[in-house]
Amino acid sequence: MPTFMDVHSGFVGVTLDQLTEAHHRDRAAQAAEGVEFGTAWVDPATGRAFCLSTGPSKEAVLRVHEHAGHPTTEIYEITLEVA
Amino acid sequence: MPTFMDVHSGFVGVTLDQLTEAHHRDRAAQAAEGVEFGTAWVDPATGRAFCLSTGPSKEAVLRVHEHAGHPTTEIYEITLEVA
Hints:
In chain A, 31% of the residues lie in helices and 34% in strands. Chain A is of the alpha+beta class. The two termini of chain A are 20 Å apart.
C-alpha cells in the first residue's frame, strides 16, 4: 500500500484540541476509502501541517480530507524513506 | 528541544543510495550544531523531501543542511503532533 505525505496550509493558531478533532474526523472517514492516517505534525505559527498516511491512491487520501473538511491538493507519494 | 520539519525540493529521481548518502552527510554534520535528524521521506517523482529533526533552532538545522550540501529555507517548528 503506498505511503503519502500531505501538506496543508491554514492551520494558523490551531490548538491541540482542534488538531485532535480534525485528525479524528480523518480517521472517522478513512475506512470507506481504504486509507489509514498516521502522525500529523503542525506548526501553528505558519499554519503548515504535514500528515502521513497509507492508502490506495492520492485521490483516496484527498477524498478523506475533503470529507473531513480540510482538503489539500499537496499530496506526495513517498517511495523512499531513511531513518 | 524543539522539533522541526524541513521541506526540500530538487530530489527528482533520487535513488535510495543517494538519499542514504545525503542523510549520512546530515548526520555527520549534526553534532556540531546540537541537531539530531530523524526520518526523511522523499517523493522522487516531484523531488519533494521531508525531514524531521530536533535541535536548538531553525538556524542550527539550516546550518547542518548547508554543511551537508542541501540547504533549504523551508523549516517549520513543530509544536503540535497527533498520532
